[in-house]
Amino acid sequence: MANFIKVSANLGFAVFVLFIAIKILSRVFDAITIKYSAIDKKKQRVILAVFGAMIIFWPFLAKGSPYIFRTSIMALIYVVLALSLNMVIGFAGQLSMGHSAFFGIGAYVVALLTVNFGISFWIAMIMAGIVTAIFGFILGIPTLRLKGDYLAITTIGFAEIVRLILVNWTKVTKGPAGIPGIPSPQIFGWVLRSNVAYYYIVLALVILTIFISYRLLHSRLGLGLIAVKDDEIAAEAMGVNSTNLKILAFVLAGAIAGMTGGFFASFIHYVNPDNFTYMESVLILCMVVLGGVGSISGVIIGAVVLTILPEALRDISTYRYAVYGLLLIVMMIIRPQGMISKENLKGVTTNADNGGKRGYKGLRWFSSSKQG
Amino acid sequence: MLQVKDLNVYYGGIHALKGISFHINAGEIVTLVGSNGAGKSTTLRAISGLIQSRTGSIALEDKEILGMPSEKIVELGISQVPEGRRIFTGLDVEENLLMGAYLRNDKKEIQEDLEYAFKIFPRLKERRKQAGGTLSGGEQQMLAIARALMARPKVLMLDEPSMGLAPIVVEEIFECITELNQKGLTVLLVEQNANIALQVAHTGYVVETGNIAFSGKAPDLLKDDRVRKAYLGED
């Protein structure tokens, strides 16, 4: 009983802290986005260049602490995963809750190919991308008929099936024991064993994914995807083939997540089904939601924050998953558009605003967020 | 221009359209009037390919389009202003218009058409970078029409353009439709507000429970006793 009271009190406290933290973060990010879009293009470029240089020279800045450096590689892995999920959720508007399955399939493809057949890491990673693209296509097919929660349930089912196969197909995957001894990548006979090399490989993946996201968003296909997300019938009346676009989003997201999985396998040299559970999908979803569904910069920030935060809060790690759930709930109530969203700058009234006006007076301060 | 023959549509077991036939000449405004659930919107959706379970014949300039996917039909020159406007609320006005030109590749001409759309609807130009969801109902209807025009249609189909708008705005919208028609656009208009629809149209068809009950020149229909009783609320 005493334990129950203690846990409840802790969770209640966590809700309170999350409310305040998200409230403050929202204000801060609103201020930053408004300030940033107000300054002229030249200065924007300078700021971006400084950030870019910092990221490129990060291995030298973080030299002193292998722990921080390793965490930053994990952060970049999650940036790629969150960005790829964002293509499905943010661009195409399809709620997929099974992203860890692609991550897992990619990791196992690389693990099996490199360990059992001695195939080079690079070819294995591309194979991982191809295999997960095929799975993305297979998972994309139900989206023709399913929407919203029904699709979410289907994708959860898919991820669970993948995990169970990884656990039970002991002949191939070695079950819960996992596959150890995944080799490091090589270039012209050089073995890239150091974390610095891994950092630059994943950084290349990040840049590639940002580039694809950006091109997709600002192309005709991207416009079509957003139109489908907005109003599928109207989009079809404009001549958009919504079926093809939705499948394309799943295939692209699957391929990118699969390649990231392959990288991850090589990075930690060991795969095991526990790395690809449902909670992993929820974590990636949290990153997308926290940063801002559909916003590239927002999702990057969301992924970085949610990788670093659990490391910083190791002491309360038992509550980690409870906090992710609470975070999703609190975000949906007070900041459904995420930390950074395009709407902030366009003056759209959001649900948060309407909700705030209808809510309890005392809660209004919490629930209404100021719009640019 | 557009010839519809013996069009049948089924929603599962329900026989929604029971052999509708009508035709539109080039440069004409044709209106389908009728009450709720008569099958007017269903007819439009069947033509634009949004409903696939249909039989009969739909020919655009003697080319059979029945059974084609909707993107092909838009490409051939039929665009639709859907019921309830269905503006993309998250996209801004300009992006909404560009969505109308989704299937076109000629960037330069799209820009010209964009300027043309802003010329016909100057209010849209003022709100160029504003999100579609923040426009008023009348502006959204204008945007929906302009968006459909961006596909350079041969036939423009409008589904209930007066829905939910103030009478003065409805008048403005219908003036626009007449003006576009005078510039040579062929229009198929579906309306519950039979009075205003028959005033702008050349030919009218009265739809009742999935059938064409009767048809005629629009001015004649306005005087027709059956129409006056059933749809214009007069004794």
Q: Largest chain interface and its two residue counts?
A: A-B, 22 and 31 residues
Distance between the termini of chain A: 48 Å
Distance between the first and last residues' Cα of chain B: 37 Å
- Biggest sheet details of chain B: 6 strands, mixed
What does the average pLDDT of chain B come to?
90
Percent of residues of chain B in beta strands? Answer: 25-35%
Specify the helix fraction band of chain B.
25-40%
Please name the CATH architecture of chain A: Orthogonal Bundle
What's the helical proportion of residues of chain A?
over 70%
The biggest sheet of chain A, with number of strands, parallel, antiparallel or mixed sense and barrel status, is:
2 strands, antiparallel
How many helical elements of chain B?
10
**Topology-level CATH name of chain A:** ABC transporter involved in vitamin B12 uptake, BtuC
Shape of chain B: globular
Structural class of chain A: mainly alpha
Strand order in space, largest sheet of chain A: 1-4
Helix segment count of chain A?
Answer: 18
Class based on secondary structure composition and strand pairing of chain B: alpha/beta
Give, in spatial order, the strands making up the sheet with the most strands of chain B: 6-7-8-3-9-10
Description:
The complex is a heterodimer of chains A (372) and B (235). Chain A contains 18 helices and four strands. In chain A, 75% of the residues lie in helices and 2% in strands. By secondary structure, chain A is mainly alpha-helical. Chain A has a two-stranded antiparallel ribbon with strand order 1-4. In chain A, strands 2-3 form a two-stranded antiparallel sheet. Chain B contains ten helices and ten strands. Chain B has helices at 40-48, 70-76, 93-100, 107-120, 122-126, 137-149, 167-182, 194-200, 218-223, 225-230; strands spanning 2-11, 14-24, 29-33, 54-60, 63-64, 78-81, 155-159, 186-191, 203-208, 211-217. In chain B, strands 6-7-8-3-9-10 form a six-stranded mixed beta sheet, sandwiched between helices. Chain B has a four-stranded antiparallel beta sheet with strand order 2-1-4-5, with helices on one face. In chain B, helix 3 runs parallel beside helix 6. Chain B starts with a strand and ends in a 5-residue tail after the last helix. The interface between A and B is medium-sized, with 22 and 31 residues. Chain A: GO terms for molecular function: branched-chain amino acid transmembrane transporter activity. Chain A: It is a multi-pass membrane protein.
